[in-house]
Specification:
Layout lengths: L3 E5 L3 H12 L6 E6 L3 E6 L8 H11 L3 E12 H7 L7 H22 L7 E9 L6 H25 L4 E4 L4 H6 L7 H6 L7 E8 L3 E10 L2 H10 L11 H9 L11 E4 L6 H8 L3 E6 L2 H18 L7 H4 E3 L5 H4 L5 E6 L13 H26 E14 L8 E2 L2 H7 L2 E3 L3 E2 L17 E2 L1 E4 L6 E10 L1
Parallel strand pairs: 5-6, 5-7, 9-10, 9-12, 10-11, 12-13
Antiparallel strand pairs: 1-3, 1-4, 2-3, 4-8, 7-8, 13-14, 13-19, 15-19, 16-17, 18-19
Helix pairs in contact: 3-4, 4-5, 9-10
Length: about 475
Amino acid sequence: MVQFIFILGSNWKLSLAELDICLRSTPFKGKIIDYSSNIAIVEFSNLINDKFYVDKLETLQYYLGGIQKIAKVSSFINYQTLKKSFPIKTIKFNEIKKERQKIKDELVTILDDIFPNIKNENIFFANSIYPNLYDDIYYKEVVLKHLLPFLNKGIRTILKEKGAIKALYYKYPQKNIDSGNLNPIFPHHVIKYQLLKPNRAEIVIGITEEGIYIGRTYTVDDPNFKKKIDEERPKREFKSAISPKLAIIMLNFLNIFEGRKEKKILDPFVGNGTIALFGLIEDFQMFGSDISKKKIDNTIENIKWLQNELELPPIPNIGHKFKTIDIKNLSKIYKEGFFDGIVTEPDLGPFFNEKPYYSDGIELMEVKLQPLYETIFKESYKVLKPESRICIVSPVINILDDSHDLRIDIENIARKNQFKPIPLITAKRIVNKSNKILQFNKSKLFSIIDTKKGQIVKRKIYVFEKE
């Protein structure tokens, strides 16, 4: 069966969860059959049978927030062959030479699959190696220093033997290779070097516990587009705003992949409109509310800017879709069962520059945040359609005088208001790996933390469904 390599974002658990949600849907039905901290290997049920399956891959790439690239697998080499070809310690050189010849023979075959035409062509390629784990000593000392040069020179030689006029490869900075601190090329490099053209390619080498998957990149995310929307909109908040990628991932957790233009989605803490903006880009009918009139004005201004930038038709009655509303009055404004989904990050409290003391943190949780979340679920139940979902961020606060983080028992609040938690990752869909770093602690993972190094307030993402 044809397989595809999906390059995961920095939060690999969140990327896996989002991808699996998409693969459960009718348009993109499939399953993750292998993964590492950097890649997921996917087999689709029917997509490959479509004559224009590359177009569908591009649509899927467009929908996904946590996937950087998608590549089609041309070959698989088991892990034992890799370790015998490139051992940590060289003992039996003749055996190494024999095993490396197996890889060379495989490359001779797969390059005809990667490049539609080789003879009389000027070919340029970049090898991107995605290890099982970046801090693995085998990656730093063997893969970068020995496998990468072997692939660069070997592929170049084979292409010349097959009749290429020129065969050039992307050269990574030697200092990064020597230090063992090398990232593969990013999506914007794929675009910059035109590596989606027939005679130019990014060759992806994805390593898992099972072996090496080798393929060619077919689609890439456009990070410059997301960055432009996020940074150039007239009203923005850099300190605490949700990222574009996370906004898109949360929208996908609603599990709505068909008929999006008819689906009404609400962000009741719309702020400056990040979720609303990317919801519109992702084809949803977006609604927003906030207790602050200024924030609503900012959101409307940002949406009008987006429409002008992307030449979108104006939203009729935009003032009726984005309103100043206190969350406790939500059901007074919208009729019962009006929305198909809710995606939101409520007020998580003050932006801390330093860790708060336990007494301050617990007061924030008990006095402000817990009552707020109870109101959110009470009102959401009224305005959501049956079996519709809410994807919501809950805070996890690092405190100064206790080793334990402070958290809200959001699952209990949701259950009391007749919402059931939806697992983001299950063992039935994604099988655990042997490496402890890549394992999931439970057979069902109901929440995933999204955080940056040094963040005091971490985001914890949940999905609940109205019973």
